[in-house]
Amino acid sequence: MHPLGDRMFDLGWTEIAVIIVVAIVVIGPKDLPGAVRGVAQQIGKIRRWAAEARGTLDEVVREAKLDDVRNQINEIRNFDLKGEVERAVDPTGDLKKTFDDDPLRESTTPAWTPPPPPKTAAEIPDAPSFVPPQTLAPLPPAPPPPPPPVAPAFVPPSTLPPLPAATSVSSGEAPSSAAASAPATTRT
Q1: Which of 96, 77, 78, 76 has its CA nearest to residue 86?
Q2: pTM of the full predicted structure?
């Protein structure tokens, strides 16, 4: 920023009047229109140069931004998602090594060996193709069937279900009409 700040070309009417009086005295009234024209041309040249410089700077900035954008696009194109995920999940590479290694290769237990193929008929010793039933051992006799259950001769009274109170005549009460019409049951 300029040391005078934003007021560098901020001139009031009094400053402009002083500049005009000094210009008339120094240059003279006869040469003053030519000097003003020369100053206006110089100011025009300075403005054109400033516009060109600003355009060049804008172009440089645009190219720099485009280069940044191109670099970002190339970074996105060259982004290795698989590699980034692998580095985030397994930074030491132990997990990948575990999956890549064959666990059976370093095994201390012996590998399974298939059983030998069955022998052919020529290798089997002479065996009879038929065994007659007389040479077999007899079957043991079948066990006798269990005896059928026998009904008990005596059933204690405690195992019988109690009679309803309405049918009991021995209690001294008169039987109800439903109980009077029902036949009397006796216990044995």
Answers
A1: 96
A2: 0.30
